[in-house]
Design goal:
It contains 9 helices and 15 strands. The chain is α/β, with parallel strands linked by helices and 344 residues long. The model is unreliable at 330-344 (pLDDT under 50). Residues 324-344 are annotated as: Disordered.
Length: 344
């Protein structure tokens, strides 16, 4: 690709996250959505017309076969991620796939194998590692500003009120852990760099899935992630990074906007507040990176191959500890609620 050319994106489906997150970030990054594919022609055409996508296509395969498409965004229901991300890779497209990448570690391994054998570029859609705020956190921890990082306390809550929302569907691999609990797990992987060794998780069950969960994941070197997540509170996203000589408080670790603050409290020093976020939309930095890679201006970072299996394993261990099915094919609903210890 020429340095002057925008990346041309294809979108599989008409999910709300594509409208609310991807498309505004594409506008900010200077790239374009050239086609959206869906199963319902009228709905797909309306999505394209209402949100500035150049054209609509019948079905997902038509997007993958489109020679004008450089990269594909996969925001389909969770059980469809593996199939269509693999198909996009085999079609020679770069892929940004919504999280969780698949519904279990075995499927994650298989999809990563497709990326490896095709030589394709696959990213799982955790976009916070690309953002200026996260880069500053990594810099602070690497510099020893709070000593050795030993514990992360993180939350992600927002209300889900419509019973038909697929986040509340067991066959769609819904539930708080898979939808939002995976964010703290991804952060812990990024900052700890160790596998999870043990999990203790309590879950509050709805009709089919857990609607709230909280627990402790202990990593191989003894560090801990304490997480809480769910669908019953007003929006709440925080993270505390606790070190041997201080802490960092992050008010919006997952989707920060300009003005979002981090507060550094180092031993013997006055608190320091910073606002590193510059992009208006949380996906923008990730999309800029994808564009730079496709233009051969940068080497790829944060590929799924570096993190997806670790997150899938952590998620599987947490679900097992909470007595939940390991994936959408394991049963129609969760097992008994409670706190269970699981180690590996």
């Amino acid at each position: 690709m020429s340095a002057r050319e925008p990346v041309r994106w294809g979108i599989l489906g008409t999910a709300n996250i594509a409208r609310a997150q991807l498309l505004p970030a594409l506008a900010e990054s200077g790239d374009v959505a050239v086609v959206v594919g869906g199963r319902d022609r009228d709905r797909t055409e309306a999505f394209a017309r209402d949100h500035g996508v150049a054209r609509a296509a019948d079905g997902y395969q038509a997007v993958l076969e489109d020679p004008d498409v450089d990269a594909v965004y996969v925001p389909l229901p969770n059980p469809l991620h593996a199939e269509w991300a693999a198909a996009a890779l085999e079609a020679g497209k770069a892929v940004l796939c919504e999280k969780p990448l698949t519904t279990n570690p075995t499927a994650t391994r298989a999809l990563l194998d497709v990326a490896r054998t095709t030589g394709g570029l696959l990213w799982e859609s955790f976009v916070f590692p690309f953002q200026a705020q996260h880069l500053r956190l990594v810099e602070l921890i690497g510099s020893g500003a709070i000593g050795e990082l030993r514990e992360i306390v993180a939350s992600f809550h927002f209300p889900v009120t419509r019973p038909e929302n697929i986040r509340l569907s067991a066959p769609m691999f819904g539930g708080a852990l898979a939808d939002v609990g995976c964010y703290p797990m991804r952060l812990a992987h990024e900052l700890f760099g160790q596998p999870v060794a043990e999990a203790q998780v309590a879950a509050e069950l709805g009709a089919e899935v857990e609607v709230e969960a909280a627990g402790v994941l202990t990593y191989a070197d003894g560090r801990r992630l304490m997480l809480t997540c769910g669908f019953r509170r007003q929006p709440e996203t925080t993270a505390l990074l606790l070190g041997t000589e201080g802490l960092v408080r992050v008010d919006n670790p997952w989707h920060p906007q300009p003005g979002a603050q981090i507060e550094v409290r180092a031993s013997g020093s006055a608190p320091v507040v910073e606002s590193p976020t510059v992009d208006a939309h949380s996906f923008t930095a990730a999309l800029r990176h994808v564009g730079a890679v496709l233009r051969e201006e940068a080497e790829p970072i944060h590929l799924a191959s570096a993190s997806a299996l670790a997150v899938a394993s952590a998620l599987g261990l947490a679900r097992e500890a909470a007595g939940l099915p390991l994936d959408s094919s394991s049963g129609s609903g969760p097992g008994p609620a409670g706190v269970v210890g699981v180690s590996r």
